[in-house]
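Course assignment 3, question 2. Fill in each field.
Student: A.L.
Task: Predict the tertiary structure for the chain below.
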Amino acid sequence: MFWFERPAFLLFLFFIPLFIILRKTGILRGFSLPLTLGNWEGASFHWPGTFVKTVRHVCGCLLCVSFFSVVLAAAGFSVLKKETYYSGTSSPVVFVVDISPSMSAPDMNGKTRFDSARDGIQAFVEKRPGGSFGLVALASDAAMLVPPTTDRETFLSRLASLKIGELGDGTAIGMGLAVSVAHLQEVQASSSHVVLLTDGENNAGEINPVTAASFFPSSNISLVIAGLGRRGVSDISYEDPRKGIRYSGKFNSEFDEGALLKITSAAGGIYVRAENPDSLDALFSTLEVSVPAVAAGWTKNVPRHLDYECMLAALIAAAAAWILRLFFLGSGICI
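Answer field:
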């Protein structure tokens, strides 16, 4: 659906047929800036008559398009897009994703641990419009990449751009949990959720994971931990986004599951062993019960202004008409 912010400017469109009538009747004469294409003081070059008429016709159409586009821009031409608004907000969910090199192990039925985690998060978020989601990444350090937000587009965009090795090659689980708790404590919500997806034991950072997890019950934050991957030797391959160097080799996956269980116990949370995508899907199905979808409240037509696009089209059309006349008809302007 189209919408005009200043529809009165559309009256200027009547100048197009009026101009054509005045020109056809001879009341209004055109003017031009001549430019002869030929040798100095020699005979000028002339294109065939039929070709000249065609070029003049095309140039006239281009000038009409240019004028039409300017009028649309002045009238505030917009396209209305229907957007859904929600009557409430769900409990915020912060996903803490391990992006250490071991997450590149392709032992999740051919998919890497990292890709399986990211795909699961994306599917969960896409099914919950109106939900509030945050994203924390952890490796040698941890960072809140997206604070809890209802803007799914921003969240999913940053999730898609997340790369293994962004934050080094360690696993700072304690830092990741501490960062998520610190941000959720500032959110006004009756309950919150943190989902940690990792395949390793804490070997970096200044905060003990059990200490960080002990703050969850008092903050009314629930914790779900997914231990990704299988034990054993696996190939890993990833490109360090900071150095642009590709690393590959063998990795012996023997993470301490007992340590993850201690973290879960300190937070009063849930631990799930996810050795394949199916078990990871089961985790997200359980999470769906804890985090119900938000009911839609109402819809609203939101205008997307196209002033810039209209002015750009006007400039392109005018420039094309100028070049055609300059090159083929020997005059830069003819109105």
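Instructor remarks: The mean pLDDT is 83. The first strand starts at residue 2 and ends at 4.
Grade: pending
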